[in-house]
């Protein structure tokens, strides 16, 4: 209930403050484990994806955010998974795989941090690791534009990547990660 109320409130705020366009939301599977993987241009990105999907989602948040009194409480109740960035946080990966095995949806930004120049950086292998371990579908996504009322922001969801088919064809996590980068780049250029 808290999640739905918070999503409705944030959605109202975002649509009042920003010009938003969402393309391909119907590509997200309605059930089963899903990892949405997007580029990361702003601190506004996680809520944008959250308000642009019908399904409830979980996401990573750096552990420092959980220590901020009000914000920490809120993100904890919005399905955030704490992660120690730059440390290969096994506990966060374990919690994520467990959530995916329960059929949940997880949003992550595999670059690991926001881009400074708007270009897609190399991706970390966490998304492919979690998808392979849980059998989750990966949905590539791209955030383009600017968070303002004039130019606006566009969120594009790409074609789902069937992890089981990729693994069956012999692709490694590294190759899956490379393919994910290609898919996100294609969405950014479209």
TrEMBL record:
<comment type="similarity">
    <text>Belongs to the 1-acyl-sn-glycerol-3-phosphate acyltransferase family.</text>
</comment>
<dbReference type="Pfam" id="PF01553">
    <property type="entry name" value="Acyltransferase"/>
</dbReference>
<dbReference type="InterPro" id="IPR004552">
    <property type="entry name" value="AGP_acyltrans"/>
</dbReference>
<keyword id="KW-0444">Lipid biosynthesis</keyword>
<feature type="domain" description="Phospholipid/glycerol acyltransferase">
    <location>
        <begin position="34"/>
        <end position="146"/>
    </location>
</feature>
<keyword id="KW-0443">Lipid metabolism</keyword>
<protein>
    <recommendedName>
        <fullName>1-acyl-sn-glycerol-3-phosphate acyltransferase</fullName>
        <ecNumber>2.3.1.51</ecNumber>
    </recommendedName>
</protein>
<keyword id="KW-0012">Acyltransferase</keyword>
<dbReference type="GO" id="GO:0006654">
    <property type="term" value="P:phosphatidic acid biosynthetic process"/>
</dbReference>
<dbReference type="GO" id="GO:0016020">
    <property type="term" value="C:membrane"/>
</dbReference>
<keyword id="KW-1208">Phospholipid metabolism</keyword>
<dbReference type="GO" id="GO:0003841">
    <property type="term" value="F:1-acylglycerol-3-phosphate O-acyltransferase activity"/>
</dbReference>
<keyword id="KW-0808">Transferase</keyword>
<dbReference type="InterPro" id="IPR002123">
    <property type="entry name" value="Plipid/glycerol_acylTrfase"/>
</dbReference>
<keyword id="KW-0594">Phospholipid biosynthesis</keyword>
């Amino acid at each position: 209930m808290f999640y739905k109320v918070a999503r409705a409130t944030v959605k109202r705020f975002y649509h009042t403050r920003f010009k938003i366009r969402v393309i391909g939301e119907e590509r997200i599977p309605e059930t089963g484990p899903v990892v949405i993987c997007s580029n990361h241009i702003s601190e506004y990105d996680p809520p944008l994806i959250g308000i642009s999907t019908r399904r409830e989602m979980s996401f990573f948040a750096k552990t420092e955010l959980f220590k901020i009194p009000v914000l920490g409480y809120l993100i904890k109740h919005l399905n955030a998974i704490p992660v120690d960035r730059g440390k290969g946080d096994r506990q966060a990966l374990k919690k994520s795989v467990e959530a995916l095995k329960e059929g949940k949806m997880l949003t992550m930004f595999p670059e690991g941090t926001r881009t400074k120049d708007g270009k897609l950086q190399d991706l970390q292998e966490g998304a492919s690791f979690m998808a392979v371990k849980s059998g989750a579908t990966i949905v590539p996504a791209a955030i383009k534009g600017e968070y303002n009322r004039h130019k606006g922001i566009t969120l594009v969801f790409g074609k789902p990547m069937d992890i089981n088919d990729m693994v069956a064809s012999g692709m490694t996590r590294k190759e899956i990660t490379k393919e994910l980068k290609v898919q996100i780049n294609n969405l950014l250029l479209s």
